[in-house]
Each structure stands twice: as C-alpha cells, then as structure tokens.
Amino acid sequence: MSSITDIVNGKGRFVDDISFPGMVHIAFARSNYSRAKLLYVKGGYTARDFPYFMASAGEGATEEDLSLRAPVLASKFAAYLGEPIAAVTGKNRYEAEDNLDSVEIDYDPLKPILDPVEALNSEPVIPGVKTNIISDRYVGKEFSAGEAEIVLEDRLENRRVATNPLETRGIVAAYDGTKLTVWTPTQSAHSVRDGICESMNLGKESVRVIQTDTGGAFGLKGGVYPEYIVAASLAMKLKVPVKWIETRREHLMASRPGRGVVGNMRIHAMKSGVIKGISGDVIVDAGAYGGASWSSGWIAFQITGPYAIPNAYFHARSVMTNKVEQGPYRGAGRPEASFMMERMIDLLADEIGADPLDIRLLNAAKDKFRSPTGMEIEASAGFMARAFEKMEYRRLARESKPGISCFALIPAVSDGESCRIKVERGRINVWLGGNAHGQRHDLWVAKLLSGKFGVDPSIIELQLGDTDMLKEGVGSWGSRSAIVGANALLKVADKVIAHVKKDKGAYTARALLSGDYDEYEYANEKGMLISFCANLAVADADAAGNVRVSKLKAYYDVGKALVPDVVVSQIKGGAVQGVGQVLSENIEFDQDGQLMAASLSDSGVLNSVQSPDIDVYLEEVPSRFPHGAKGVGESPTIGVPTALVRAIERSAGIRIRKTPVSPEEIVNARSRVK
Amino acid sequence: MGSTPGKFDYLKVSSIRDAVKALSEVENSKVLAGGQSLIPLLKTRIMTIDLLVDIGGIAALDSFREDNGFIEIGASYKVGSLEENRSVSKYIPALHEAAAGIADPLVRNMGTVGGNLSHADPGNDLPPVMTALDAEFVISGNGNQRVEKSDKFFQGAFSTGLSHNEVLTAVRIPRNGGNATSAFMKQAKSSGDFSLASVATVLHLDDDMNCLSSRTVLGSIFPRPYLMKSVDSHLQGKKINTGLLKEINNIVKNGISVESDFFASAEYKRYIASYLVTEALALAYKRAEAGLT
Ligand SMILES: Cc1cc2nc3c(=O)[nH]c(=O)nc-3n(C[C@H](O)[C@H](O)[C@H](O)COP(=O)(O)OP(=O)(O)OC[C@H]3O[C@@H](n4cnc5c(N)ncnc54)[C@H](O)[C@@H]3O)c2cc1C
Questions:
Q1: In the listed set A219, A245, A271, which residue is the last one of a domain according to the structure?
Q2: Contact assessment for residue A50 and residue A233, using Cβ atoms and an 8 Å cutoff
Q3: What's the CATH number where A236 sits?
Q4: From B102, B167, B198, B199, mutation site for ligand 1 pocket: most ligand atoms within 8 A of C-beta
Q5: How many structural domains is chain A composed of?
Q6: What mean pLDDT is predicted for residues B183-203?
Q7: What is the pLDDT of residues A14-49, one digit of tens each?
Q8: Are residues A513 and A619 in the same domain?
Q9: What is the pTM of this model?
C-alpha cells in the first residue's frame, strides 16, 4: 500500500497508473435505453464471444433460473440504461472510444418501469420471469393493533444514491497462458477472484487478484462486475494485458448504487408515548436481474433499532425495476431501517406533543431486549441519556430546533476475517482478508502489532490484498474491519509469538526479528456486536428552501478507539455523505428514462465548501474482543441523515418523508402547511 | 461511453485576424477560450470538432480597461480576475457577485468572460448581468467589426448572433453615472452550482432615492436573458420599500409564463423568480442607501 504521504502527493499507485507494454484499453457500448429489445448487435466483442452470466442470481433463484442472472453482455434485451452490450479495444483510451463507432446496435425501445411500487404489479421488467418480486418475506410476528390508542401511518422513502468514490471502478488483467492476474481497487480481492471464477468457470488456483491503492469504495468495490468479466475474458482471448477504467458517467449509470427503498410504516402507541408496535411494508428498488435480493429482509430485521418495541411485523420485498442492480452503499440497509424508525418516532412525538428525546428515552431498552425480528440488544436507555447530555440537547432545544436520532449499529461481524503475518529480514508484513480502501487500516495494524510484539511500528507494513499471498479472505465492509480484522491480527500475532517461544525458548522482540516466521489464520466469528449511537443536527431552511446546516454532533460508542484520529475522520467523512444524501445526492431519470446526472457535481456530492463540520464525542465501552473495538464506519451515514431531516423539518415547519429533500419540496410543503 | 474527445486539430493563434481566418477555412471549427464548457462537451462526445482555434494566445484580449464612458472587458479576461477586480466589486457589485458565484476557483481561473457569454448557456450567470448593464458586445469578423446589444447577441439557448467565423473580442459596459447601484442573486439547482434562476438588477436613482430607471433581468428561466419591463416600469419614480416589493413580487409571479421541467415545477420557478427579484431589488437599494456604490 502506498504511504499516505505518497497518496497525498499524487504518487499513489492506483489501477489507472498501471501500464504494460502492448496493453490495450477497453471501452463499452452500452444500452441507450432503460428497457429495449435488441434487434441486432454488430461489431466489437459481444455475448457471442463471451456468453457468461454474473455469478449470483440472489436468494430463491435456482441454478437453472438463468433469467434472473445478469448477462455479462446483453444480447437480446437491455434491462437498464448503460447495460454493457459490446466491448471494443484500442491502443489507448482515445482509440478505444473511437472504435465504439464500429458497434451497431438496433433497439426496439419499450416503456421502462422505474418505480419499484409500480413494478410490484406491473408486467415483468425482464423477459423470462413471471414477477418482478425477487424476495418476498414476512419478518417479525403478526400482532393485533388491540390496545394501541394511536396508530400513525406514513410513506417514507430513500431515493437511490450513487456510491461515488473519487476513484471509479477499474481493472487491469493479464494472462500468461496458465494464470490470469487481475489488478483492481477493491474491498475484497478474494470476492473479486471468486466472482470471476464462478462466472467463467475457472479454478481458483488459475486466477490471482491483486488489490491496487484504492481511492474509496463505500460498498461499490466489494464484488465483481460485468466489465471485469469482459476484461478477464479479453486478456485471455487476446493474450495481451487489458485495461478498463470507468468514467464518471458510466459510474452514475451502470455501477451499483445504494439506498432505493420505500417504507409504508405504521406505528402503534399509547397516548403516553409508549410504543406498542411497528409494522408495514419495506419495498426495495432492486434494479434489473436477481442480484440485489438481500436488503429488504435485512432492513426489516433491524427497524426497531435501540428501542424495546414489543411488536414488529414487516412485509419485506425486493422488486426488480429497469435500473442497474442495487448494491450496498455505506450503511447498506442500516440507514434505511433507521430512517423508517426515526421518522415514525418523530411523527409520534409530534402527534402527542412530546419531546423527541423524552419519547426515545421512554421507549429505549431498559434491559437486554430481543426484538420480535430476533435482534438482540443490550440496555440502551443509559447510553441515550449520556449521549444527549453530552451533546447538550436540552440547552440547544431551548435556543434552537435540533433534530436528534438514535440507532443501533450492527456491524457485519459474521464469518470473521483472515490474516497473515510474515516476519523476514527484520521487517513485518501483514495481509488482511478485508482490504483497506482509504480508512488507514495500516495505522491500527502497526499500533496493535507493535504493542504486541514490542517492536517499532515503522517496520510493520500492511500490504494490499492479494489472493496469492493470503489463502482466504472475506472483505472490508459493514463496519467490520477493526473488529474482525484486528481480532484475526492478534490471533496470528499470538501464533507468531508461540512459534518464537518454541524456537528460542522465550519471546523477545530481538528473537522475533532475527528469525523468519510466517503464520496465517482464518478467525471465524459468529454472533453480533451491536453498539449504540446518537446524532444531533441544527439546520435552517431559508425562504427559497435552501438549507444551511449550522450544527452537527455525533456521540458514538465505538468501543476502544484503536486510532482515535482515524475514528474521528471516519465519522467526519461519513457525515458529509449523510448530509449529501439529505440535501442533494441523486441519480434521477427524466420522463424519457434518461439519467440527468452526468458528473460528480450533477449527482450532488458535496464539495469541501458545502460540507459542514461535525463535533464528535466518543464513548469507549470496550467490546468483548481483545482489542476492545466496535464498529464505526457506517454510523455517520445512518445517524446524520435522520437527525438532519428532523432539524430541517422543524426549522421549516413541515413533514419530511423522503431523501433527498430539495429546496422546491421544502417551499411547496411549507406553502401547504400555511 | 466516453471520456475522451474524438480526433481534432488544434491551432493556437496570436491575432484576431488569424483566428477569423482559421475559422473561415474550416467549417466544423470552434473558438477555444477557457474550455470549461467546450471541453466537457467534446469529452463526452456530445460534440465533435475538426479544428479548435485557441484564442488564449491573443494577449490583447485578456484586458480590463476603464474609460470615461465605458468599462471594457476583453473576451479572454478570466472570470476569476473579474471576481478579484476591485473596480468591479466597488462599482458593479452585480458583476462581482455573478463572477464570484460561478462554480469553484478552478473553473473561474480558466473560464473567460467571452466564453461565458458566447456559450449562451441559459444557466450561465454573466448573460443576465451584461443584459442588465446594457453592455455592448464587440465582435470581429472577416475584415469588419460590429457592436451589438444584448437583445441581438443572445438569440436562444446556446445560440448567439455570432456567425461561425466571428470572435467576440470585448464587452463594453456603459459607466454608471450618478446614483447607480446593482445586485445579482441566484438560486442554484439542488445539485451542482448552475443556476435554476438568477436575477440581475441595475438601478439608477435620483437624489431623493427615487428610481429614475432600472434594468431588471431574469436569467436561466428562459432560453435567453429576460428583461422584465413590467418590473422596471413599475419601479419608475418610486422609492423601494416593502409595499412596493410586494407589488413587484406579484408582477413577476403573475407576469411570467413558464413550464415545468426535470429541475423544477412551473410553480417553483415562478416562486423563486419573484423571490429573487424582490431580494435583489432590496439588496441593490440597500446598497444605494448605504452609499456603497
Ligand atoms: C463544474 C462547472 C460549473 C460551472 N458553473 C457555472 C455557473 O454556475 N455559472 C456560470 O455562469 N458558468 C458556470 N460554468 C461555466 C463556466 O463559466 C465556463 O467557463 C463558461 O461557460 C465558458 O467559458 P470558457 O472561457 O471556459 O469557454 P469555452 O468553454 O472555451 O467556450 C465555450 C463556447 O464559447 C465559444 N467561445 C468562447 N470564447 C469565444 C469568443 N471570444 N468568441 C466567440 N466564441 C467564443 C466556444 O467556441 C464555445 O462554443 C461552470 C463550468 C463548470 C465546468
């Protein structure tokens, strides 16, 4: 991994910095329509050359159910705008893009179905299937409204958000006749390898995936994409190295964005504010094909969050639309779930005229609690009280109109992580199964390991992901790395120490560095590690509907903050994404199904001038793991949007049901209230 | 889906005559100024071009001249220079505000006054200001020079009175005499920074602070800058106060006919236009009262 100094000075080694003699560049001809029959495709490399399908068809799909598997290259039907149809190559990027003129595609455009609610009952958005619903589950337990004195309903929505890392997707692939080597920025070299192997039916030993310096990922770079399969196939077919670098327009159109969920929620409560139950529909805009069936049930599972709500019952469905497949975006279901819960709890507070904090404290878990969906949390009431005390909610509430939020973060601890430590010539190299993509895993690796080994941190180096250097690996996502990665790291360090003891009788740093050691372990992990977090925001909306965020605060239980600066930076960066989701980020289509965002700026990513600062308070209650850390990476994208939406709604005197909320929507809602 | 331009030739010229000649010789050619609008069009291959005529080497065009009757701004004068120009911020606050509100310092340091006007993007911010300032557009073509006013220069969205082989060389702003004041305000789209609506107003006041004359221009809402005569005639002879602004607000709201599009509903466009007009007038008037101009 390049040093931070090199990266800041423009000397990182990103995938687009890789160049080989004879390397060709790939460009893609993509569907100009959100839904169309393809009458013919001529020129370039097409599905006839590479008749592959993407690995996963999602839950419920059978092996034979090919209709739900996304083709690597569309041949008869285009299911979303920007779907790859043909690939061309050129000596450089200019030539490759010139050669796109050689591809001819004849379309028979059909009316696209872009709205997931419409898609529930509409004709199928792709051929060969009977329904657009790819996941349909009831989560929790049915209950009767019986004793509840108040039942409130609302329709809530998070529109889709592009992941938009500064570095887009990209790949370099080379084939030496026996082995395919792939360089790519990724959150998981192993998952890219497995995806390629599964699609192309290759043995794992014949593919090596090497991570390059990775300029952000946010969920985007967890897996494999059609373009990667094409690049791998072309490298093998042409026997020259190939490169594909995604443009921003391609990113906005055809990489997997996150969010995209509608919730029809019902909250059942007593006049006292005690919540008796929550129920409703969760409808996820899964996009085309069957890959994104995962999130509706996952959202429903965690809606009750940090509250002890005795009844919960949800109908969770993922529905195909004529858009690119949905993917995980920082938070991946957690922000959506929290949006549903927090919006409904604020609605209830307004209905009974209660203070939003009082009503949260009233419904917080006073003891260990197992939700009707099976989510187990510790007592949250004490945490909430401390959080809002520290963030000075009561004082701020007297002088302004703060919005608040509370949530329970569920990191993706399950399945654990792998680690390898290699000591050689006085230096220590480390590989982790979860690949850092900008979070500075290198700092906690050096800190924990130098402490454990009693050596200078400067001789410890975290390496980029590499499937040939590490047998197995899971990935870096779901707020998991410092939890399971550090756990694996410490386990392997113990192995190394034991080995040194066995060799030299006793462990000393000198004994360690004078020998050669190479240890590996896959530290499996089951169960959950839930932590509580809270946010506060103050904002005002002016007469034109423009929002100014004047205060953001976070109070998070992060367990032991392994490297406090890094934890704070994670929260600051995520807060900017949270604010962006509320104010401006969008990938919307016009009525003709054409995407209106063509650049980073169009898609509403905030720049530094537009980004508010956030005051961060850490509560460090150690976790059950030896390093004491809990999750943090996703927290700001969960808690900031909900608190900010509430602050805007209080300032503008309206009800907000959707992110993003535009100035126009604020003005319109205000004029309806008046 | 590209990010590189198709093939083109590139010529850097050092005189206006050479620029005109080169443009005349190649049919599918275009002036390249700061490139901040043109290059993105080429890179996305929305547009292809045979020849780019770079006028950045014509030193005389990167100029700012104050005369008795005029301020003359050369076409290659940078938006960033305009933002930092003290005469501009002192005497023509509307122009300073418009320049300072364009994109980010990177774009402003490359983008030119001439490019911003010649591109005639309805979302650009200098066209309404120049219209409100009643500026003259100085145009050089084959052996001749002509001067046009805004109503002839801006002809529609991305369309001007420039013929293919003509170059905009400068804009001349008549010097504000006596009690003149101005203001510019914009409402950006909810993402990015391009205007959804903008308003530039220039007021001339008598010694008692009554409006002698004014030019109030709506930008972005229509394909070209829209001079709101009904607003200006209503202002004539009056002091600006809350009551008058309420009337003006109604005049704008009821006086413009707009259509909904992807970015905003007709209702919000009317709302924001009338809001910006009253805010800009109030600001300009406040400036005059404070003797700032
Ligand atoms: C991210 C971003 C955000 C922006 N936001 C805004 C904004 O909010 N408000 C705003 O006003 N602008 C905005 N712009 C546009 C910016 O101001 C451009 O600089 C301007 O529109 C064009 O100026 P240029 O010098 O770059 O011209 P170029 O891009 O070089 O040229 C634009 C067009 O004008 C023609 N042309 C240029 N100069 C002449 C001339 N002297 N004679 C004849 N024809 C000429 C060219 O042939 C071309 O067709 C933004 C641009 C970017 C990239």
A1: A245
A2: yes
A3: 3.90.1170.50
A4: B102
A5: 3
A6: 94
A7: 999 999 999 999 999 999 999 999 999 999 999 999
A8: no
A9: 0.96
